[in-house]
Amino acid sequence: MINFYEHIDDFMTGNLDEDTLSSMNDAISKDNHLKEAISNYPTAKKISEALLEIDILEKINSLELEESPEKLKGSSQSIFRKGIGFLILLLILLSLVVGYKYLTNQKAEQQNVLFASLYTPPVDMDAVRSITIENLDPFSKGKYYFSLNDYAQALVYFKEAELILADKNKSTNYSESILNYWMGHVYINTQEWELAKIYFEKSKEPESKKNIDLIKRIQNL
Amino acid sequence: MQLLENATIVLSKIRSGKAGRDEVITSLYKNKQLKSKVINQILKKGGSKEEAQSVFNLCLVQFFKTVIKNKDLTIKINLEAYIMTIAKNVWYQELRKNAKIKTSEINDNLDLAEENNSESLLLNIEKMEVLNDLLSKLKKRCKEVLMYWANGYNMEEIAKMCDYKSAMMARKKKYQCMKELLDYVSRNPHVKEAIS
Q1: Are B13 and B100 within one domain?
Q2: Using one digit for the tens of pLDDT, what is the confidence trace for A20-34?
Q3: Three-state DSSP class for B31?
Q4: What is the pLDDT of residues A99-121, one digit of tens each?
Q5: Residue A196: which residues within 8 A CB-CB, separation 6 or more?
Q6: 20 to 30 Å CA-CA from B180: which of B35, B55, B119, B139?
């Protein structure tokens, strides 16, 4: 007596010899249970195949579990420690920031007072008198904007004037010394002390030294 | 790290049975460089951290399945690059499943090169849930035999890996287990519906 269940594999893969195949076909037509088994075979094979995926996933899950208690243990302790540490650090930082702000504000205030009491801006009558600014050369335009306290625009034109001065093919009605002097004044007004000092030092104008001394006093506050 | 550098050893360990397979899974899972590369790749493609971790796990499963089911598979590029390609494709498959991206866009991005003939996965969370009851009923030995048989091992190999005296014994065990499984499917038609 043939146990047809043992031959389902070969039946499905077409590996049965002719006689067994014929007997099996006969048995399937009579045995509903066998017929159902054959119909369920693809599902059973798929499940069997999926057992590998399950096995691998189970291993990965066990590795994840191995990792997570350590992480949790480590993290819960370190979160507490980190929390306190963070608070202390925050307090230190806050006090530093507040202290620094207080000191810098105080210093800036002292600098402003000193600057206001000792600084004298240059006055250029030609620039102030000018009616049509379009006709002015860049140096004069710079002085014009300086007189309006528009230091950014003044700097643009002084820089342009600097370029013209560097060009040996072009003649100018101003010297390098006077240009540096004016640029020094732009930077002193924008409180860029070091730059202002550099330009005043490059200038030979008599007033430059006075301004350098002022900057040094301001910086020493 | 050393294991990753030698693809031939990795492949033979994976195919050698549970111990070798678990050794490689552990090694790859704990390889921080590989893990962060895969995760960063998914994050760059717009995935969340959780999705990236899930893609990393799934790409490992797909990699092992591909190696086991394709006995002649050799990896010509380096193993890390191979796994990265699988991860990328797993991510696009996930996107397609969740309809976050047009099919045409996925096809443009899928690496269908020779080096990437990876096996697709049969399971997802829903299917796993359906199988939970069966898995608790099926004995460990049955699971092993059916798993190796369905993934292309012959009876001689199964006998060796599962410590049976002969291929005939392995065949008998496989028959008993298969009958048990077929009976279960017959009694639980919802399993057939879910898996098919």
Answers
A1: yes
A2: 999 999 999 999 999
A3: coil
A4: 777 777 777 778 888 888 888 88
A5: A184, A185, A186, A187, A188, A211, A215
A6: B119
Domains and CATH numbers, chain A: 4-73 (no CATH), 122-219 (1.25.40)
Say whether both B107 and B20 belong to one domain. Answer: yes
* Residues 164-193, chain A, touching B (beta carbon < 8 A): none
**Shortest alpha-carbon distance between residue B153 and chain A (Å):** 11
B50 and B112 belong to one structural domain: yes
Q: Does the interface predicted TM-score (ipTM) exceed 0.90? A: no
End of a domain among B75, B97, B116?
B116
B99 in helix, strand or coil?
coil
Is A2 an interface residue toward B (CB < 8 Å)? Answer: no
**Residues from chain A contacting residue B131 (CB–CB below 8 Å):** 47, 50, 54
> Are B93 and B135 within one domain?
no
Low-confidence spans in chain A with pLDDT less than 70: 69-86, 125-131
B99 lies in which domain range? Answer: 2-116
